[in-house]
Design brief:
The chain is mainly alpha-helical. It contains twelve helices and no strands.
Length: 297
Amino acid sequence: MAASTPRAATLAILLPIAAVLVATAAFQGGASMAKSLFPILGAQGTATLRIILGALMLLAVARPWRNWPARAPLRPLLGLGLATAGAVLFFYLALGRLPQGVAIALQFLGPLGVAIAGSRRAADLIWTALAAAGVWGLVGHDLSAGTGLDLLGVFWALCAAGSWAAYIVWGQAATQAFGRGAAPLAVAIAALVILPFGVAQAGADLLRLDLLPWALLVALVSTAIPFTLEMYALSRLPAKTFAVLTSLEPAYGALFGLLLLHETLALPQLGGLAAVIAAAGGAAWTSRPRTLLPAPD
C-alpha cells in the first residue's frame, strides 16, 4: 500500500495536466480538420455545422436542465452565448484567410488583454510589450516584405480576440449562476446565433449526409472531447496552472497547421508565435484569479 501512495499522488498531478494538453491539442486539431470543409460550406457554414453538432453533444453530456437554478439571471448567459458565437465565427473567418498558427495567436490577444487589463504592475507591462513584439513578428514580416498578408483575416482574428475577452468576462457571471451548465448552454445559444449566417453561406449543403460523418468527427474533436477533459482538469488543477497550459494553444495551432494543412511559417513568425505564447503564459501566471471556461474555439 505504501508503494502505491506516491504513484497515486504522481498520477493525481500528471493526469489533469495531460488532460489539458490533450484538450488543447484537440481544439486545434479539430480546427485543422474543419478547414477541409471550407471549400464546400465556407467558413460560416462550417462554423454553423460544427457548433450545432457540438452543442447537441455537450447538452447530451452535461444535461444542464437537471440543476437549473431558481431565478437565475439570463443576461450573463445570453452575453456568454453571443461572445461564444463571435469567437467561433470570427475565428473560422480568420482561419479561411490566415495560417492557423497566426490566427490563433492573434486570437489569444483577447484573454491576454483580460489578464492584464487595469493592471499597473511592471510585470504586466513586460507581457504587453512581449505580446506587441509577437504580433509584429506574426504580421510585420509579411507587411514589410510586401507579400500581402490578408488584412481582412487579421481583422477577423482581432474580432475573435475581442469576443474571447467578452467570453471570459461574461463567463464569470454566468458560471456563478449556472455552474458548469453555463458552457453547454452558451454553446447552444451560439448555435442559434450563428445559424442564419451558415444558412446564408451554405444553404442546403448544411444538410448533406455525405458531410455528416466528417462534421460529427470535427464536432467531437473540437468540442465534446476537449470540453470533457477540461471539466475534469479544472477541478483538479490550480487556475493559474490551467491558464499557463492553455497558453500553448498557438503552438498546437501552428503544429496542426503544418501537419494537416501544410501551412508553414517564416522564422520571424515563429519568433512572434513564441513571444505571444510567453506573454500569455506569463500574464496568466501573474494575473489575478478569474473564472476559467473551456476555450470557445
